[in-house]
């Protein structure tokens, strides 16, 4: 890949559902090797942006270029260079991990044997070897999450979109996955990391993009955002930039409701 061509280039992206404006002009350029912490309040438009880039949502205005190609005009080939872990695992859970990963690998154009071999290797490393031939329906949340991560990487994509990728994983697995993401980024892959867990985003990301009301409210490294906003944690930066200062009063009202006794 030529470094000077951005992996992702978005210009004035707007989207609305009926009368409701969800994206209000997003401009974004991503180069290879960045881990982007993609954050924002619920409903800010994060998933919508990602789904547009994946070609799953139509009807937007503006321009979205991936690997230099306008995705409105390009065929579906660019998708074979993208991996995606959605927030809610939509696994065919009557299959075993072996069957599922072989199936997904084949969808991405791998030979069945290659997909199975790669899947087994990756599953083994993440501690799933003994469960490889058990049905996914019997797996814990963390085990399912690992299968999702493996399935998103089988075809060695250049862009990875991860939505809450560490949910359900124990502390040791989290450390392994964080290292894996860093190594992949160092190889030149671009990773979009969406999460509501600010201290992880703070540590994992080389660049943080905060979306609020369908607009980019902040874009920079954690160090830059700290300097600009005079705050020491990403959680505080998030709260400041989204204008949220009601946590204490909401908590007090909630606890008052818990304690209320009907007379
Ligand atoms: N298919 C749809 N039809 C109508 N409205 C939609 C549709 N999909 C999303 N929305 C609305 O668009 C807005 C942005 O949603 P989106 O899922 O992109 O937010 P998000 O930032 O990913 O939120 P979260 O952090 O909760 O995942 C929300 O108000 C949502 O209700």
Automatic annotation (TrEMBL):
One of its GO terms (molecular function) is ATP hydrolysis activity. Residues 8-238 form the ABC transporter domain. SMART domains: AAA. InterPro entries: AAA+_ATPase, ABC_transporter-like_ATP-bd, ABC_transporter-like_CS, P-loop_NTPase. Gene3D superfamilies: P-loop containing nucleotide triphosphate hydrolases. PROSITE patterns: ABC_TRANSPORTER_1 (PS00211), ABC_TRANSPORTER_2 (PS50893). The keyword Nucleotide-binding applies. Keywords: ATP-binding, Nucleotide-binding. SUPFAM superfamilies: P-loop containing nucleoside triphosphate hydrolases (SSF52540). This is ABC transporter.
């Amino acid at each position: 890949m030529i470094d000077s061509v951005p992996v992702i280039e978005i210009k004035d992206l707007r989207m609305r559902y009926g009368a409701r404006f969800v994206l209000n002009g997003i401009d974004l350029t991503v180069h290879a090797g960045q881990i982007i912490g993609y954050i924002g309040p619920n409903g800010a438009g994060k998933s919508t942006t990602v789904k547009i880039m994946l070609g799953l949502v139509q009807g937007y205005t503006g321009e979205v270029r991936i690997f230099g190609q306008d995705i409105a005009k390009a065929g579906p080939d660019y998708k074979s260079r993208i991996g995606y872990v959605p927030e809610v695992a939509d696994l065919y859970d009557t299959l075993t991990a072996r069957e599922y990963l072989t199936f997904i690998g084949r969808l991405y154009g791998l030979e069945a044997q290659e997909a199975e071999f790669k899947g087994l290797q990756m599953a083994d490393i993440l501690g799933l070897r003994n469960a490889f031939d058990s049905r996914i329906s019997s797996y814990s949340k963390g085990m399912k999450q690992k299968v999702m991560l493996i399935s998103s990487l089988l075809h060695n994509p250049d862009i990875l979109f991860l939505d809450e990728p560490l949910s359900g994983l124990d502390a040791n697995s989290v450390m392994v996955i964080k290292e894996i993401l860093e190594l992949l980024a160092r190889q030149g892959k671009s990773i979009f990391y969406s999460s509501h867990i600010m201290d992880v985003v703070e540590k994992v990301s080389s660049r943080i993009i905060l979306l609020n009301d369908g607009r980019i409210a902040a874009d920079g490294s954690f160090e830059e955002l700290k300097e600009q906003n005079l705050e020491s944690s990403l959680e505080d930066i998030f709260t400041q930039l989204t204008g949220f200062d009601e946590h204490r009063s909401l908590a007090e009202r909630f606890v008052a409701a818990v304690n209320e006794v009907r007379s």
